[in-house]
Amino acid sequence: MQVLETPPPGAVVLLNGKDLSNWMKRNGEPAAGKVEDGVIIVTPGAATS
């Protein structure tokens, strides 16, 4: 698998590997959870809107 250092032009980056700043709930609030070692960690009940 090839890992790109920068996304191609026009790409929408959802997971930057650092935080969930590009994620939001359906109601527009920031997404709950955190990112550890580039992986999304979701706490029980946090993935609902």
Short description:
With 49 residues, this protein is an all-beta fold. It is built from no helices and two strands. Helix content is 0%, strand content 12%.
Ordered list of secondary-structure elements with their pairings:
Elements lengths: L33 E3 L2 E3 L8
Description:
The structure is a single chain. The protein has one domain. 0% of the residues lie in helices and 12% in strands. By secondary structure, it is mainly beta. A hairpin with a 2-residue loop joins strand 1 (34-36) and strand 2. It is built from no helices and two strands. It is flat, with a radius of gyration of 13 Å. The protein has strands spanning 34-36, 39-41.
| Portion in helices | under 10%
Main sheet, how many strands, which sense, barrel?
A: 2 strands, antiparallel
Given helix and strand content, the structural type is mainly beta
Strand proportion: 5-15%
The total count of helices amounts to: 0
Could you tell me the radius of gyration in angstroms?
Answer: 13 Å
Which keywords apply here?
49 residues; mainly beta; two-stranded antiparallel sheet
